[in-house]
Amino acid sequence: MWDFILNPMVTLLALLYQVFGNDIVLSIVVLTVILRMIMYPLLAQQQESAAKMQEMQPKLKKLQEKYKDDREKLAAAQMEMYKEAGVNPLGGCLPMLVQFPIFIALYSAINFAVASTPFQLVDLSDRLLIPGLDGLIPLQSVFLGMDLTAQPQPPSNPWYALALPVLVAATTWLQFKMSMSMRKDDKDDNIKDDSKDDDNGMPNQAAAMQQSMGTIMPLMFGFISLTLSVGLSIYFLTSNIVGIIQYSPMGKRVLDKVFRSGGNRKEKDKDDDKPTKARGKK
Questions:
Q1: Running DSSP on this structure, what letter comes out for residue 22?
Q2: Are strands 142-143 and 146-147 parallel, antiparallel or unpaired?
Q3: Residue 107 exposure: Cα atoms within 13 Å on the Cβ side
Q4: Can you list the pairs that 158-166 forms with residues at least 24 positions away whose Cβ atoms lie under 8 Å?
Q5: Residue 21: left (phi > 0), alpha (psi -120 to 50), or beta?
Q6: Please, where are the H alpha helices in the chain?
Q7: What's the mean pLDDT in 165-188?
Q8: How far is CA 197 from its chain centroid?
Q9: d(CA 3, CA 23)
């Protein structure tokens, strides 16, 4: 089922391995960066949809109070509000659903690339779509004295390999914090105050859930990195670092300029020039 995504991914990783002089770590890093860049427009769409939905929270609360005894009217009023604002309530979920199988395939491709058993090596050779790449097998699986196919724990790996799960957890936490900071920066001060507490004066449930995720996710990914191979830890670490750059103000500005269509930029420039032209006529 996954072969139509997985096999091209494994082939691309093997091709990068050949290009970079049999350096599997550099190949993993480059492939991860390429896919994160390809996925950036979807990430930007997801962020934009989340920001719009957050801006509409005060209006949604008013509708919920107005139609609290009539669910049908509430649903109709919400859909009408979404339509007027040009917001798709599923806009934040659809990009995530598209990204999920691609990142799972990348994860699996790295797992196949650092195959550690004869069966896995045969399976890897069968997945390569470009003739001649099978001559690269087995791929180099040692980096800085660490076995990429083994867990980052002694005796399978030296003690310093344990730094990888720690770095994965730390960068996961930082990436999450930066994503939350970006959402807060997009909110108006009044929206912050209105959405801080719920109707009973209790902390907003969504905010409490986000805070819990900020604690659980780093620990979860750190534990996963501790129990899986070093090669996958390198993938997690690279992906987190790219995410941190994407969420940084400078990184977001650069990426928006690169991926935003020229048409949108022209329209924005026209809008920016309108007040200037109007002042000149006056």
A1: S
A2: antiparallel
A3: 15
A4: 161/230, 162/226, 164/225, 164/230, 164/233, 164/234, 164/237, 165/222, 165/223, 165/225, 165/226, 165/233, 166/222
A5: left
A6: 3-19, 24-55, 57-66, 71-85, 94-113, 118-127, 163-186, 189-195, 205-227, 230-247, 249-259, 262-281
A7: 80
A8: 28
A9: 25
Q: Distance from first CA to last CA of the chain, Å, rounded?
A: 65
Identity of residue 128: L
The residue whose two tokens read 């050949």 is: 18
The percent of residues above 70 in pLDDT, for the chain, comes to 76
User: pLDDT class for 117, splitting at 50, 70, 90?
Assistant: low
Nearest C-alpha neighbor of 41 from the set 112, 86, 93, 99: 99
pLDDT of 168 over the 70 cut: yes
Q: Residue 138, Cα to own-chain centre: how many angstroms? A: 31
pLDDT digits (tens, 9 = 90+) for 193-206: 444 444 444 345 55
DSSP-derived secondary structure letter, 237: H
Torsion of CA 213, 215, 221, 222, to 10 degrees: 180
- Other C-beta atoms within 10 Å of 237: how many? 22
Lookup result for tokens 């950036």: 40
How far apart CA 100 and CA 207 sit, in angstroms, is: 24
Give the Cα separation of 116 and 150 in Å (integer). 8
Residue written as token pair 């390198």: 234
Strand partners, 146: 143
- Interhelix angle for 118-127 vs 3-19, to 10°? 100
Quote the CA–CA distance of 51 and 272 in Å, as a whole number. Answer: 22
CA dihedral 279, 260, 236, 209 (to 10 degrees): 50
Q: Which tokens is 243 given?
A: 């995410």
Q: What are the structure tokens assigned to 9, written together? A: 């991914």
